[in-house]
């Protein structure tokens, strides 16, 4: 019998707070539903005090999640804890996650507090949180650069004040696996009541050791790992959830532990999160990258055909990547389409089925066969696309290698249409210049533009992902079409609409 390790997911908090990874309310709810299906133990839904939008999304997620606990982050301040509790109180299992730094450098320069003040604040705020909520996690920020003796005193104080989970973050991704194991061993010996709380770790990936550090911490006695889908998170990110989970699953013989996560939902979770933040996986990304199960060399292919385990340590099916991705076509009816949506794990209302089915039929007119990947792209795009201020009515491009490109774009906003023409260095630049003339969005910059095909063939759906920066805000935009210029325009408009609506929200304190 294996010991069970809890999986605490922070995709929607640490992941979402990293630059260019912001999500709108609908996208966050969609991700939370998938995390619930994945059966993670905790979903950290956001940082409720940081903005009204964050508060609203934590509260909405608390209302829809059926199995996992739902947490909100809060600094060790009464007003943060109040907001966190208000946001999660409707959850089946609410959790307040409060944190305070314990390293000399953070205490001196960030908090401007003495160690004794940190100790006292920990006591007060954990007990304040515990008076509201039966489950409270305390994180000693920058724990791995703290003096172990002082860290042990703070953690003991937090447990005495009622913390039910004690988290040891490697905030700056600094420790090595041996040091992490040593620290967990030290705390186990020197925090007298540690056995009364769940011991958690939260590792960042600055030196590429987040997963290794999490696993050695588990080997040393930690029973909760904090991680994020696709390794999203501040800077180089957090430990990648899919890597931690598949390591626990594949090597339970050696690690002697397991977790509750349904591994067959991992691929879908990864795709969804990449889609909503506008990223594509590196080809060689462990577990979920396009090459993770691809065998290119003849010797390997031959080996796998003779006996799968010659070169495969886990099956694609174990992460939910079916080899037989179903194909639908223009003769497929609404019924078959709806069944397929359900088999793919989507909970859909009748109106959603109608909308997606219409998009599916439109696609069938342009493309011979429609794969599961296409259907997933249709659903993700439709759900993520909150109608913005501007919508595309039509465009007309003229381009060639011997002429300056031009584009006429007509957009609709608040029932009125506006048309502009612009020149550019190629049809997409021309289209973007025309859109800029219409929307009048202030200084901004196209930081990234990426295009990829959803499935194979010349008639494949193309997905364009752009990142646009205005001031200190970076947003991503996505567009989907069999016409790559249209996909490019839709992606840019999606980003511009987000920037236009973003001014009001974000940032009373996005600071952790
Ligand atoms: O990295 C970190 O220290 C954090 C804490 C707030 C848990 O994200
Ligand atoms: Zn973190």
Could you describe the 3D structure shown?
This protein has 4 domains: 3-277, TIM Barrel (Alpha-Beta Barrel), CATH 3.20.20.70; 293-321, no CATH class; 334-384; 391-500, Alpha-isopropylmalate synthase LeuA, regulatory domain (Double Stranded RNA Binding Domain, 2-Layer Sandwich), CATH 3.30.160.270. 42% of the residues lie in helices and 22% in strands. The protein has 18 helices and 18 strands. The protein has helices spanning 11-15, 25-38, 52-64, 78-88, 104-111, 115-132, 148-160, 177-190, 210-220, 241-250, 252-255, 266-277, 298-306, 334-343, 350-366, 372-384, 427-439, 484-502; strands spanning 3-4, 6-9, 42-46, 69-75, 94-101, 136-141, 165-170, 198-203, 224-227, 257-258, 327-328, 370-371, 391-400, 403-413, 416-424, 445-453, 462-470, 473-481. The strands form 5 sheets. The protein has an 8-stranded parallel barrel, surrounded by 8 helices. It has a 3-stranded antiparallel beta sheet with strand order 13-14-15, covered by helices on one side. Strands 16-17-18 form a 3-stranded antiparallel beta sheet. The longest helix has 19 residues, at 484-502. The chain starts with a strand and ends in a 10-residue tail after the last helix. Mean pLDDT is 92; it is low at 504-510.
